[in-house]
Amino acid sequence: MTVSVFISHITPLTFFCFFLLSSSAAADLNITSILSSFQNLTSFSSLLTSSSVASDLTRRQDPITLLAVPNSYLSIPPSSDLTRRLPPSSLGDILRYHVLLRYFSWTDLLQIPPSGVLVTTLLQTTSRAPANFGAVNITRNPLTNTITIQSPVTFSPSNATVLSLIKTLPYNITILAVDSLLVPYDFNLMTSETRPPLGLNITKALIDGHNFNVAAAMLSASGVVDEFEADEGGAGITLFVPTDGAFGDLPGNVRLQSLPADKKSVVLKFHVLHSYYPLGSLESIVNPVQPTLATEDNGAGSFTLNISRVNGSVAIDTGIVQASVTQTVLDQNPVAIFGVSKVLLPREVFGKDSAGAMAKPGNPVVGANFQPPETSPSPEDSPWLSGPASSPSGFHEDMKSNGERFRLQSCIVALCCIGLYLLV
What we know:
By secondary structure, this protein is an alpha+beta fold. Helices cover 30% and strands 19% of the residues.
């Protein structure tokens, strides 16, 4: 007997809508939330939080690979010696050395050549690692597929072996279990031990610069300078401060002083990155689209600065203003202050589409360059402590999304689907 199955003509449309909605999702990088599912990584997660590295990662938009040390390995030498002996600032730099600024799938790891691959870490972006000592060299034994990670310096005394893949959220983050904390070569000579005491007076530094009196007055009057100075710890901060001439060149329709206090505060925070970037790091910044302190208050993807190198200088593009770094006012880890040629006006406040409908640099476009999501090993079934680089089993897709910047996009897609449904 033949059984006929009727498939509604709406089904293809339904799948199409589901595809668009799912492809518009992106994972927020809340590393503490991700690691909370793994009881064997609680100590490592606590170190990330206490050293402020977790908050550094939350603000990043680049894909990363995190090298996590399980509790059992973190409690024995040499890792246990490092966690007990190092001050928070140095321990934070050690942990930044475990954040690879590149996404590696399990397939990518198994394709690494025996000669190795040099990969930049989050530590390298701080300029506290001399030469390329803030990078790691990843090698693979072609006979055993053992993955080893160490300093690029030949015969480095510090190295770690990949135990297994813990989790992957394509194409955002991969978490690998390794058997030891890594120490960058020549770590004791790095400037992480010579940070100045907190309490640096930013307003005084601007007044001493003799060309930033307007900015100093605005920062002091608004009260946000206190918040900036409170954020000097951890990853530090980078301020882009307009010169007095830049304020004089503002268009006649831009009246900063007449803005409500909350909007004025947002504009000032738009001039600050929540990481310490000396000039050399800005000139070679990995991700040109950088979140600001205003991003933290208004959601991922908003109030970002596009930083690049143009004609030998650092250029900053807000979407409606293009400025350049004109001078270094202060570069004293963990604070960098740079003079800029124009007031950085966020388009969310001063642009034509300030309500938030305008696309922002670096935001993904629905359907553009879509790739099938990679699979992820089931944490419950993964034999991640069974041996070096053991191949995970029970792969499954595990995509999560809480990104504010995609909600409007998803609503538009849903409305389009409903309209198509009614027209059919």
